[in-house]
Design goal:
- The structure is a single chain.
- By secondary structure, the protein is mainly beta.
- The chain is built from one helix and ten strands.
- The strands form two sheets. It has a six-stranded antiparallel barrel with strand order 1-2-3-8-7-6.
Length: 197
């Protein structure tokens, strides 16, 4: 049954605000394109500000040199993908994702009550939806977890901003994230580049 606090207040079209995102268990069926509705197992989690989404790849490399000192190969020793986004009009679900489900409750009066306390945040599948140049884009993170939340500034002049950083880990195929772009053949897989032979 849907909870009133989980409804996206500005609708569910990716053209609204900067987009929206959904979460599900890592066993939920993965998407295969940018536009087909996700299957059961995903819930709406919130809207994204017009600043959109930032994806950052981190990589550490180590050169391999021959006897003369020339670099003959470069090995990737570390690789990671992090996604940062800011939430607009967060939902009950998004607050639970940020603080832990046990720390966010709804009072008998309908207020969302958040306790700031240490919590082990879940690893889940994320689907982030937004529009670029009129084309819908779906950024799919098969196994990802919130690892950072920004400072919160409360004031009367601007909406409260909740920025989160999500750390991705590889799925069974080695993909950390998948980008599906409407109207462009194929899918971009974000994963470590193969090592040079």
């Amino acid at each position: 049954m849907s909870n009133a606090h989980d409804i996206l207040v500005a609708g569910t079209d990716a053209s609204v605000a900067g987009g929206y995102f959904q979460v599900g268990e890592i066993t939920a069926t993965a998407p295969t394109d940018a536009t087909t509705a996700l299957g059961t197992g995903y819930v709406n989690a919130g809207l994204i500000t017009p600043d959109g989404v930032t994806l950052a790849e981190t990589k550490s490399t180590e050169p391999v040199k021959d006897a003369s000192g020339a670099i003959v190969r470069v090995i990737t020793t570390e690789y990671g993908v992090r996604v940062t986004l800011s939430l607009l009009a967060p939902t009950l679900k998004s607050f639970q994702l940020m603080r832990g489900a046990e720390n966010v409750t709804v009072s008998p009066e309908g207020d969302i009550v958040t306790k700031f306390a240490k919590a082990e945040l879940p690893v889940q599948s994320w689907a982030v939806h937004f529009v670029d140049a009129g084309r819908k884009i779906r950024l799919y993170l098969p196994e990802a977890q919130i690892v950072e939340t920004s400072d919160i500034a409360y004031n009367v002049t601007t909406p409260t901003n909740y920025e989160i950083t999500i750390e991705c880990r590889p799925d069974a195929d080695g993909g950390y994230a998948y980008e599906y772009r409407q109207g462009v053949p194929g899918v971009t897989v974000i994963a470590p580049e193969p090592e040079e032979a």
